[in-house]
């Protein structure tokens, strides 16, 4: 079973930041004092580190974290959940998407968070563990995250819940508000409003398992984010306020890519690492001599999940080890739509 690669490479992160801030190639090249040809080469995947650091300073990204990403030197390590959490990874076009099952080991009450594109392994797991699925909670309703919703409802009879700001077109679906709770025996799941990638994107904060857990859909990926060309700043703001304020040992379960921890993302995520440059130093406009903010080392815990990429499958959370990032081409981030806010309508792909 191959490990899940990081969802985005450094060129993807540059493209998402550039798109989010609405900066054209010509503007970016001028600001960073590099040639258009050099920018093209970087965006095509050439890891020209000094130039990448310079670009980072003009995209409010962490130069250090972006360099680490370009050098493929960081892969997250997430701790073991002996029980109460299973991760599934199913194919979607040329990529994969994650969904999760959370349960209370005593009462056997369970909740599914997103469905992925194929629920067959999830349904088999639910039967094998004799779980009773009370609810299916949707982080957001982009197609890859809800493709197996009908099959899952048919198999479990569970209620479907989506954020009240997130458009959902499913018979009988119910909505929750920000900060609402769901309970599974001793497990509490709080709905955190982390919208921006989509109008009502929700992070489900799970308390009561071995580690605090945030299942965040496309709000946050390891070393990247889901992105949003229309509400990028809001996404960053909401993610920073509601995910990065959680306990630092919180495990992050993203909609794409590997499990990670908040501590790892604080150090290695170019969008959130503390040495992001917000104001250009007039004495050092290119950032060539800027020093990075000293960082505490990320807490190394246990090994991450090891799912089957490219085939529907459950992650064995007890068997995983880190691996180098797999390089992938740049991709676009697309949001959904929102009632009063001009989200662009798009459901075919979520990240
Ligand atoms: Fe999405």
In the CATH hierarchy, the architecture of the domain at 74-275 and 296-315 is: 4-Layer Sandwich
Regarding quaternary structure, what we see is single chain
Uncertain runs: 284-342, 344-349
Q: How much of the sequence is in beta strands? A: 15-25%
| Number of β-strand runs | 13
**What small molecules are bound in this structure?**
fe (ii) ion
Radius of gyration: 20 Å
Structural class of the helix and strand makeup? alpha/beta
Query: How are the strands of the biggest sheet laid out side by side?
Result: 6-5-4-3-2-1-13
Q: What characteristic shape results from the CA principal axes?
A: elongated
Distance between the termini: 23 Å
What value does the average pLDDT take?
84
Helical segment tally?
10
CATH superfamily of the domain at 74-275 and 296-315: Ribonuclease Z/Hydroxyacylglutathione hydrolase-like
CATH class of the domain at 74-275 and 296-315: Alpha Beta
Sketch the topology as an H/E string, one letter per element.
HHHHHEEEHEHHEEEEEEHEEHE
CATH level-3 fold name of the domain at 74-275 and 296-315: Metallo-beta-lactamase, Chain A
Largest sheet: 7 strands, mixed
Helix % is: 10-25%
Describe the protein's architecture and organization:
With 351 residues, the chain is α/β, with parallel strands linked by helices. 24% of the residues lie in helices and 19% in strands. The chain contains ten helices and 13 strands. The strands form two sheets. The protein has a seven-stranded mixed β-sheet with strand order 6-5-4-3-2-1-13. Strand 10, helix 9 (232-242) and strand 11 (251-254) form a beta-alpha-beta unit. 52% of the residues are buried. Residues 284-342 and 344-349 have low confidence and may be disordered. Fe (ii) ion binds at residues 140, 142, 197-198, 218, 226, 350-351.
């Amino acid at each position: 079973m191959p490990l899940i690669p990081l969802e985005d490479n450094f060129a993807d992160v540059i493209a998402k930041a550039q798109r989010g801030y609405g900066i054209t190639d010509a503007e970016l090249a001028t600001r960073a004092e590099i040639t258009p040809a050099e920018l093209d080469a970087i965006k095509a995947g050439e890891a020209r580190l000094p130039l990448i650091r310079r670009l980072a300073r003009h995209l409010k990204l962490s130069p250090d974290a972006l360099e680490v990403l370009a050098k493929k030197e960081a892969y997250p390590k997430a701790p073991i959940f002996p029980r109460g959490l299973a991760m599934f990874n199913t194919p979607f076009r040329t990529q994969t998407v994650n969904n999760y099952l959370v349960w209370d080991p005593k009462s056997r009450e369970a909740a599914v968070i997103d469905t992925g594109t194929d629920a067959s392994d999830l349904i088999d797991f639910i039967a094998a563990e004799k779980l009773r699925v009370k609810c299916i909670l949707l982080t957001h309703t982009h197609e890859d995250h809800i493709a197996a919703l009908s099959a899952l409802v048919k198999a479990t009879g569970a209620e479907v819940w989506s954020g009240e700001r997130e458009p959902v077109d499913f018979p009988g679906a119910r909505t929750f508000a920000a900060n609402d709770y769901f309970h599974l025996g001793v497990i509490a799941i709080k709905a955190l409003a982390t919208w921006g990638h989509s109008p009502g994107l929700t992070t489900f904060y799970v308390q009561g398992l071995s580690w605090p857990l945030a299942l965040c859909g496309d709000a946050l990926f390891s070393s990247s984010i889901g992105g949003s060309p229309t509400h990028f700043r809001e996404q960053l703001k909401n993610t920073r306020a509601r995910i990065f304020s959680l306990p630092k040992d919180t495990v992050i379960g993203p909609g794409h890519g590997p499990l990670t921890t908040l501590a790892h993302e604080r150090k290695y995520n170019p969008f959130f690492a503390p040495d992001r440059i917000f104001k250009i130093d007039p004495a050092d406009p290119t950032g060539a001599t800027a020093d990075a903010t000293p960082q505490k080392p990320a807490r190394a815990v246990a090994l991450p999940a090891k799912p089957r990429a490219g085939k529907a499958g459950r992650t064995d959370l007890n068997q995983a080890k880190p691996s180098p990032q797999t390089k992938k081409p740049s991709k676009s981030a697309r949001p959904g739509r929102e009632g009063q806010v001009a989200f662009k309508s798009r459901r075919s792909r979520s990240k």
